[in-house]
Amino acid sequence: MSSAVEKAVEALELLPEEMQESAADYLLSQAKKFRALKDAIDEGMADVEAGRVVPWDLEEFLKRARAQAQR
Hints:
Low-confidence stretches: none
Mean pLDDT: 96
């Protein structure tokens, strides 16, 4: 077992028994969110490297949004 896993287990064992399950669920939830964010960033960087991303023109976007809102 890695040092980080051992520390997490030790921390959970220090908590009162009624808190351990919710603390483990919270840690797992945060880890899943981190993984999803990392995957999204990796995907975005792959798009940049492959040239599938173009600079965003804020002024053009606002001009189109305003024109569409006036319809």
